[in-house]
Design a protein that fits this description.
Number of domains of chain B: 2
CATH architecture of the largest domain in chain B: Alpha-Beta Barrel
Number of strands of chain A: 0
Largest interface: A-B, 39 and 44 residues
Order of helices and strands of chain B: HEHEHEHEHEHEHEHHHEHHH
Oligomer: heterodimer
Shape of chain A: globular
Strand order of the largest sheet of chain B: 1-2-3-4-5-6-7-8
Radius of gyration of chain B: 21 Å
Helix content of chain B: 25-40%
Distance between the termini of chain B: 26 Å
CATH class of the largest domain in chain B: Alpha Beta
Shape of chain B: globular
Chain lengths: 198, 370
């Protein structure tokens, strides 16, 4: 497999081949689509594309959030809790395609250079760990470019890229599988109403 | 003291009212520990890493700590480093504080969620731990049990913030109040030798914002690279907000160096280091020499407050390395750190050994309280 060639010289003990050998003893056979490193390079080409176009996506995302906020009366009329199902359905697929979204329910893409931090095997939300390889790949999945190396380069292209320097709170696991879009919209609407109560 | 022994030289880190009394809190200090005092006095600090035993025997820990006696300011108790199971760091800390050593309690986010971690912080602080080092931890794949579930509920940054909240605001993450806050000196790890290099000083700034008061770096074998990093750190003024300790260690041979390079995540060993080891007749001695040379170079860098010696399986050389490099600058680290409840434990033991009618321990506690 050509995609597994990276790193063989620099990291023999931790190469994809070595990891495969290490885990081969676990069972009689290795399913065709999985390896010890879990994800093959071709499965995240779109995610890497999104990071390369972080500035454009930031623009799109900003306008999209405004549009969602403009729809606040509609969401309110329908009921946020009733909109949750269909919106989550669309959000999961749209962000799943573009960012390999894991539906953590508290999206911080705009603070991470449009590189979803939940794709980090350690799910770090505050920057890269110390194990990043010299070639910028992940310590755990030798074939995958480090999510945070990507995030840093993506954030440099963005207008508000310095949001990557903010300290993020730990993930609230109780919000998993819920819509981040609706939550952000509801919060923004509440804030707007608080600012000018009529 | 017994009357026969020669007079003890005066010690800075000792309660003037009695050697057996805990230190008084100093203004601006967050712990009662020795490491914080040494660093805040502006002295060059030395810490070392204890190789955790694969045993349930306390003597193993005492033996491994004894080689550092009088050479280091604090001993790091690692938390299943490399994702291999060993004696727990909280257990090692409990044993070390019992013997009067000053441990640095390492917490990694790999194995425990926020509930377990907050409990361990309280437990360790109650055992007399004055320093806590917050780490992300290696992935489970690095160890010998790659099938384990990686937890990573918090990351090093949110862990720092959690412990700082417990200390400064006296409450759990949930907001529930603590009756007694853990007074600890907070540390974190840095790795200036891994990409993205531009982000690394920013990440240190983030860690300081999250509560880091001292940092220990990954193994430094590339001094020019460390120079570069420190220059950027100084430009940002970070060395004034945080004590930076450089991680160093002896390499046993060129073969070990190559093995570490390919198997231990995040360790960067330049080719000329491997070549230097290869060219030597006695590679082990050369590895030690190299470590001493690196200490001598980094201790002159502005903003470096100390070294952290990680001599994995060569712990017996730490004393020699510290001595030969002159890292302590003639200072002799004080050996004892007193726990708040030391006297209580001594009284209880005395009672068990000598008293005819045993008093229950709560009576001893009651007497002490009044």
């Amino acid at each position: 497999m050509p995609s597994l060639k990276i790193d063989r010289r620099t990291r023999p003990g931790n190469s994809p081949e070595a990891l495969n050998r290490k885990t081969a003893s676990r069972g009689a056979y290795q399913p065709a689509h999985t390896t010890a490193i879990r994800r093959l390079r071709k499965t995240y080409t779109i995610r890497l594309w999104s990071v390369r176009h972080s500035r454009a996506l930031e623009w799109v995302y900003g306008h999209f959030a405004d549009a969602f906020l403009a729809l606040h009366p509609f969401w309110k009329a329908v009921g946020y809790h009733r909109a949750e199902g269909p919106v989550t359905f669309i959000e999961r697929r749209a962000k799943g395609l573009l960012f390999d979204c894991r539906m953590c329910g508290q999206c911080i893409l705009s603070s991470t250079g449009m590189s979803c931090p939940m794709n980090c095997p350690k799910q770090l939300r505050n920057g890269p760990c110390g194990g990043v390889r010299a070639n910028g790949n992940c310590e755990i999945e030798p074939d995958m470019p480090c999510v945070w190396v990507q995030a840093w380069s993506g954030s440099r292209a963005m207008r508000k890229g310095d949001a990557i320097l903010d300290v993020q709170k730990p993930v609230d696991q109780s919000l998993r599988e819920t819509s981040s879009w609706l939550r952000v919209t509801a919060q923004a609407a509440a804030k707007r109403e608080e600012a000018n109560p009529q | 003291m017994t009357s026969g022994s020669p007079p003890r030289p005066p010690q800075t880190d000792e309660n003037p009212l009695g050697i057996d009394l805990p230190l008084d809190p100093l203004p601006g200090h967050s712990s009662l520990g020795r490491l914080e005092r040494v660093l805040r006095r502006g002295e060059f600090a030395v810490t070392a890493e204890l190789n955790p035993p694969d045993s349930a025997n306390a003597a193993d820990v005492y033996e491994r700590a004894a080689v550092f006696d009088g050479w280091v300011d604090a001993i790091n108790a690692v938390d299943a480093s490399g994702a291999n199971a060993h004696m727990s760091s909280v257990g090692i800390c409990a044993l070390l504080t019992r013997m009067g050593y000053a441990p640095v309690f390492q917490i990694s986010c790999r194995d425990r969620n926020r509930i377990a971690i907050q409990g361990d912080v309280l437990g360790a602080a109650a055992m007399g731990v004055a320093n806590i080092l917050c780490l992300t931890g290696d992935g489970v794949q690095a160890g010998d049990q790659p099938g384990a579930k990686p937890v990573f509920d918090l990351d090093s940054m949110s862990l720092l913030e959690t412990v700082r909240t417990m200390r400064d605001e006296g409450k759990f993450l949930s907001g529930r109040k603590l009756t007694s806050a853990p007074n600890v000196f907070l540390g974190a790890a840095i790795n200036p030798f891994a990409p993205p290099y531009d982000f690394r000083p920013q990440r240190l700034a983030k860690k300081i914002a999250a509560g880091a008061q001292f940092v220990q770096s990954q193994y430094c074998f590339d001094v020019p690279m460390f120079h570069e990093y420190m220059k950027r750190v100084r430009d940002m003024g970070l060395h004034e907000k945080c004590f930076i300790m450089c991680g160093v260690g002896p390499l046993a041979s060129a073969k070990t160096a190559r093995w570490i390079r390919s198997n231990v995540p995040g360790v960067h060993i330049p080719d000329d280091v491997v070549k230097r080891l290869e060219g030597a007749t006695d590679q082990k001695a050369e590895g030690k020499r190299l470590c001493i040379d690196i200490i001598n170079e980094v201790k002159e860098i502005e903003g470096v407050s100390g070294v952290h010696v990680m001599a994995y399986r060569q712990e017996e050389f730490v004393a020699e390395i510290v001595h030969d490099s002159g890292a302590l600058r003639g200072r002799k680290p004080w050996k004892r750190e007193v726990r708040a409840d030391d006297q209580l434990v001594a009284d209880r033991l005395d009672d068990i050994l000598h008293a005819d009618n045993h008093r229950p321990p709560q009576d001893i506690v009651g007497e002490k309280a009044h």
